[in-house]
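Much of what follows relies on a compact textual record of a protein's fold. The record below shows the convention in full:
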Amino acid sequence: MPIIYLSPSTQEWNYFVTGGTEEQYMNQLADLMVPYLDASGIRYVRNTPDMTAASSIAASNAGNFDLHLALHSNAAPEGQYGTARGSLIFYYPGSVQGEKAAQIVADGLKAIYPVPNLVQTVPTTSIGEVRRVRAPSVFIELAFHDNLEDANWIIDNLGAIARNIVLSLTEYFQIPFFESENRHPGVVDVTYGYLNIRSRPTTQAPVIAQAPDGAPITIINQWDGWYLVNYQGSIGYAKDDFVTLN
């Protein structure tokens, strides 16, 4: 299953025009994303508010992540405060997967941002969390926190934005999206060999783990003849014919 580096802003000095900070609201957004990530089987490592962009980059590069996802809000240049609106989704030019993920995220946000034509993808070499990370990177400037309408949109729609972004991630990774976990204990039930646990719900997907007959297994969700399962820390998909519910 995919694993992302989740990097909400650590910029505690960037204040929303309505009060509160970029760090505060982007971490709230990440908090709201976590249940959808867990339910959909997307693993994550997350930075902490006491980190910096540099230490977040270092932590991302120390792992083997399928995507680096940075969550930020924006501000217009000095002298133009409050005049700009829109969502900008940055990616590194030449990164095929970064551009693909950025476009999917942008298309998703267009469905909920009040001015869809102001949502756009932007190639950049100037943002560290895009230029300096090893994984494909998507850097979201969700909206302008110095603009009253944009700031209120972020604050009033954090839950919908969280759901929307994770939905886009599942589209990018080609896995089902789940609203919540539906956990049940189960037992592997095969007549011979092992139960293959795969990275996606298809027999063509790579096998990431194998579980013997009788092994306890945790079912997280069910989709179209497959269980999303956790077997000894390996999260993936197994055919539901070969798992018995306890």
